[in-house]
Protein: FAD-binding FR-type domain-containing protein
Amino acid sequence: MIKRSPPRLLSVKRSYALTPHMQRVVLTGEQLLDFPVGQEGANVKLLIPQPGQQAPNLAAFRTQAEDRPIVRTYTVRQYRPEDNELDIDFAIHTDAEGRGGPACEWAINAQPGDMIGVAGPGPRKLNSLQADWFLFAADMTALPAASAILESLADDAVGYAFFEVTSSADAQQLRIPAGIKVKWLVHAHPQKESSQLLEQMQDLQWPTGTPSIFVAGEGNAVRKIRQYVLKERGVARDHVYISPYWKIGLVEDEHQVQKRAEMED
Structure:
C-alpha cells in the first residue's frame, strides 16, 4: 500500500488538446520529484483553486473551510521522472451553453505557470494482470485509466477493448499489445444514457480461460455491465475492476456520496 503523502503544489508546464474532447495538462514542480513511479492508471485528487485564487489552499484540503480547494478525481496518465512531468487527461463535457465543470474549465483555460494541488496517488486498478485474456469497456472519462493499464500489459496479452467517445476524432493512437482488438464507439451526447458498451460485451464471443476485466464510466451504464459480468457471466470479483466514475445529472460530490452508499448496500 502506498503511504499517503501530503498534497503537492504543482504548476502547469503545458496544456493542449489531445483530441477534440480530451485535454492533456502536463504538470511539474519541485514537489513532484518524489512522486512514485509505475502508478499509471491510479487515481489522484486534483485540488483546484477557488475562483479568484492564484493557488489552492492545500492546508484546507481535508477541512470544510470556505476556501477549501475544489476537489476532483482524475487519473495518472503518465509520469516521466526523467523530465519531472505528470500527464493528466481531462474528458471535455460541456452543457448546452458550452460550459463544463470546474475541472474541465480549469483544464481548457490552463496556462503555463498556473497552480494546482495533487493528492495521491491511490492504489493502481485491475491488479489481476495474470489472465488468459483481457476485456476493457470505458467511456471518455475512463479512457485515460484504461489506456494506461493497457499500455502496461505484456506484449503477448490478448483480448478486447471497447471505448465510447464523443466523436470519431476522439479515437487515440495507443501503444498497446497487438493482440488487443480495439473498437471505438461514438456517443455524441454523453449526458444521455448509452447501452453501447454493454451491447458490445453481450455480442462478444467470449474466449475460453480466465479473463481480467476493466469497466468504468457513467454510473447507469456501469451498473448494468456489472450485473452482466458478475451475475450472468459469473466472473469472479477478484478478476474485475468495475467502477462508476460519474453519473448523469450529478456533480462529483453528489456522485461520491451515492457511490459510497451503493457500495455499502
